[in-house]
Amino acid sequence: MEIIVSKYKKVTDFCYELFRIAELPLHFSKFSNKIYSTYQKLFLLVYKQFRKFTYEELLTDIADNISLREYLGLVKIPDFTTLIKFAKKLPLELLEKLMSAFQTLIPEPKRVAIDATGITLDNASSHYCKRIGKPYKKRPFLKTTFFVDIDNYIILLHKSRRNNRHDTIDAKILFKKLSKKFNPETIYGDRGYDDEKIFEFIDETLRAEPLILQRRIDIQNHRRKGHYRRKHFKTFDYCEYLQRNKIETTNSMFKRRFGSSAKSRGAKRQKLEVFFRVVAYNIDRLIRLGHEVILIFVRILGVA
């Protein structure tokens, strides 16, 4: 068996394993011209985020990289409009399947943290905005909420929103998804998630320990509102709560590695860009953690 040396060939194998686990069709439509498979186009979108390319830079790189092109089985280089149209047509169910596929490749998370971060939508500098008379004090951003396994720094779930809303709105949606896929023992969150319904859901549904910092820690517990908030305030361990800072480390790693701004213009394309960054980030983490034994099984499955 040939040893895989190139990092991006490893990325290719992880991508194809994800697509296989998600049971994606080779082509979405029977009327497709079948020049490029779903796998090839999805990989190119993930690879684009790995290299922080534009569409034209991506295709130029693939054209020059003969070894990777042969590894992908790309006989012909697609036009950049092919990838843009493909991304626009991607159904949300497919994205959910891809994120769920990571569940089989990562260890069961025991300590999970939730936090939100902003992805900038305008790359113009404040000086340029000032010169053209554009408001720059509050720049538009894509608010993205992450659920992170803080032991391995892997993103489990995420949700992006263009409108500025309270953290608990997206959190309640993500908590329901978390309960269907994972069984964490401890959940960390800052004051933005201090909500009685969130405490109740964690306690009754997830059967986990909520280490969420409450807004008023200076008042007596009997004056605190909410049965579950009072119950868990008694057992709140502030020293253990500081482990929540690891999700801030994840946010920093995510932005430094793959960028803190989105280049796309449409709302759906911006969310898709963040989604493929999450996929690229998780694959990068699996490679850095040394999960290379998975690649051996991928190669065996490919031969079989």
Give a topology summary.
Layout: H1 7-21, H2 38-51, H3 55-64, H4 66-72, H5 80-89, H6 92-101, E1 111-120, H7 126-131, E2 141-149, E3 154-161, H8 167-181, E4 186-189, H9 196-206, E5 209-212, H10 227-234, H11 238-241, H12 245-258, H13 267-288, H14 293-303
Parallel strand pairs: 1-4, 4-5
Antiparallel strand pairs: 1-2, 2-3
Helix pairs in contact: 1-2, 1-13, 1-14, 2-13, 8-9, 9-10
Structure characterization notes:
The chain is an alpha/beta fold. The chain folds into two domains: 7-103 and 265-303, no CATH class; 108-256, Nucleotidyltransferase, domain 5. Helices cover 52% and strands 12% of the residues. Strand 2 (141-149) and strand 3 form a beta hairpin. The longest helix has 22 residues, at 267-288. 27% of the residues are buried.
